[in-house]
Design goal:
Distance between the termini: 11 Å
Low-confidence stretches: 542-551
Number of strands: 0
Radius of gyration: 24 Å
Helix content: over 70%
Strand content: under 5%
Order of helices and strands: HHHHHHHHHHHHHHHHHHH
Shape: globular
Length: 551
């Protein structure tokens, strides 16, 4: 892909990545309000788990397919499609008054938001030669982490002046503006839509929106309210005449528009994508839906894990026999394989700090959830700084050197954190240690992506980027579940050994032991990631693998 303004296009795509990353964490503050908005009480927190796991499911399970599509179609087209899905998902979420609709909206947000990352990384491979990708990749990694920092902040600002639905309406506005910016900066004129699919698509959007919104002025009208009357004893806004019409219009639009998108999707090995999606989805739902105080594996895990293993086995069988498999044969080897391994360890280390630093702060530093979250900012701000520094360092150093040094630095900091206790967060040294850990993790982001892109041919950049993101997210989900379970095991052992199990100070000390255990496990993950980084290559890569011309 060529662009008249590559930096502007990268900047636009990067802002979109930051928007999607912010949406991952924005739910943290808005979750209780969202539960109330769909009729769940505060005591039904377990029922609200799909609000979070649904986003992760959409984000991870469809990534390999989107990565493959980014190799078959233009990056600009995939960016626009992902933004469209993200916008529709945000609108559905904003209009939801029942849990299934809310979860569906979050799944769509995850699909669209997750797909932006590999498409943007592949875009970098298109627009920059192999020996100059470091800084652009660092920018993508930095804005993704910056979005994670800004998500809760933006959520707090919106909630201070409006309700939770406004968060997602702002996503709709931002997504539309970013799509227009992609068209302008990309320089690729979108194909003129056919009249019938366009009309049906607009009708489907309008009717579905009206069905979900159920405006009071229409619902209470004697005549106009008839289409909004639910069937039988249902309370769902979709189980109504207008809801049925909306569903029919959506199906009709999919049917008449199929000629436009199936030509590309049909080449992407849809059966293979479905099998791999089931395998990844099973992992996500198994660990993300678990209650770490009682279990490592979620309530459906003992059914989902065998299903996921079966699906993955069938995928491997298809991978060997399909003429054009989802992931081209030979892509996951050499440096690319080590990229996936390092990315998983980075995810495990990162999520341990994000989750357990606020826990430690609540135990030893403050009773305020807000103040505890602010302690984490010392770490979160350092991650994007490290990502930029890591991208810049690739001008002179090899991928393995930058990633290995970064993760080694993080491992040292995490080992220090594994000894933290009462009063540790009061010291200035805590800020230094958190910043160094964040800097080290950030340093590894660009080298991992750079090595994966350099190890595969041009026509596999999208799927390689998607696999790196999937590996990191799986590392986060599985790593958090395992480390938290180990930490809680030590906590319960410590409590059981107490002579007085009602002693508040002793219980707090046991909680600190749990957090220390998680930090120790994160340090081990960082060490393993540093060792695996040796496989990324210690020498700087000079030659583009596919003969990509410089700008």
């Amino acid at each position: 892909m060529r662009s008249p303004a590559p930096r502007a296009l990268l900047a636009t795509a990067s802002v979109a990545v930051a928007l999607a990353a912010a949406d991952t964490y924005v739910v943290v503050l808005a979750l209780t309000d969202m539960m109330t908005g769909v009729g769940l009480g505060i005591d039904a927190l377990q029922k609200a788990t799909p609000i979070i796991s649904g986003f992760l499911l959409g984000y991870i399970a469809v990534l390999p397919l989107i990565g493959r599509l980014a190799d078959l179609a233009s990056r600009q087209r995939i960016l626009l499609a992902c933004l469209a899905i993200f916008v529709v998902g945000s609108a559905v979420t904003a209009l939801a008054v029942e849990l299934p609709v809310l979860v569906s909206g979050r799944v769509l947000q995850g699909i669209g938001g997750g797909g932006l990352v590999p498409a943007t990384l592949a875009l970098v491979a298109d627009l920059w030669p192999a020996d100059k990708r470091g800084m652009p990749l660092g920018v993508v990694g930095a804005v993704q982490e910056l979005g994670s920092v800004l998500g809760p902040v933006l959520g707090a600002v919106v909630l201070a002046v409006s309700d939770w639905r406004m968060i997602f309406w702002l996503n709709v506005i931002a997504g539309v503006l970013l799509a227009l910016a992609v068209v302008v900066a990309g320089g690729e004129r979108p194909a003129r839509p056919r009249a019938i699919p366009l009309v049906l698509g607009l009708l489907a959007l309008v009717v579905t929106g009206v069905a979900l919104a159920a405006p009071a002025r229409l619902v209470t009208d004697v005549s106009l309210g008839v289409p909004f009357v639910p069937f039988g004893g249902s309370t769902s806004r979709l189980a109504t005449p207008i809801g049925v019409v909306a569903l029919v219009l959506v199906l009709a639009w999919l049917a008449v528009s199929a000629r436009g998108w199936w030509a590309v999707v049909g080449r992407a090995d849809v059966p293979g994508a479905l099998l791999l999606g089931i395998a990844l989805g099973s992992v996500v739902l198994t660990f993300a839906a678990s209650d770490p105080e009682r279990e490592v594996v979620g309530p459906l895990g003992f059914a989902l894990l065998p299903l996921g293993a079966l699906a993955f086995g069938l995928y491997l069988w298809r991978h060997r026999r399909a003429a054009e498999p989802l992931i081209a044969r030979g892509v996951v080897r050499g440096r690319a394989r080590f990229s996936l391994l390092v990315s998983a360890f980075v995810g495990a280390s990162l999520v341990s700090v994000v989750v357990d630093v606020p826990v430690l702060a609540r135990l030893t530093f403050t009773d305020s959830q807000t103040e505890a979250a602010l302690v984490l900012v010392r770490f979160l701000v350092a991650v994007p700084v490290g990502a930029l520094l890591g991208g810049w360092s690739l001008r002179r150093l090899g991928d393995g050197v930058v990633s290995g040094l970064g993760l080694a630095l993080s491992a040292v900091g995490l080992l220090v954190m594994s000894r933290w206790g009462d009063g540790s967060l009061d010291a200035f040294s805590a800020t230094v240690v958190l910043a160094l850990v964040g800097l080290g993790i950030g340093l590894a982001l660009a080298p991992v992506n750079n090595a994966a892109l350099a190890a595969v041919p041009d026509d596999a950049h999208g799927v390689a980027s998607a696999l790196v993101v999937v590996s990191r997210m799986v590392g986060m989900v599985v790593g958090l579940a395992l480390l938290t379970a180990i930490g809680l095991h030590r906590y319960y052992d410590t409590v059981a050994a107490l002579p007085d199990q009602t002693d508040t100070k002793a219980l707090v000390a046991a909680g600190v032991v749990q957090v220390q255990t998680v930090f120790t496990g994160a340090a081990v993950a960082a060490v393993l990631g540093a060792l695996a980084s040796l496989g990324l290559g210690l020498r700087r890569n000079h030659q583009p693998l596919g003969g990509i011309p410089p700008l």
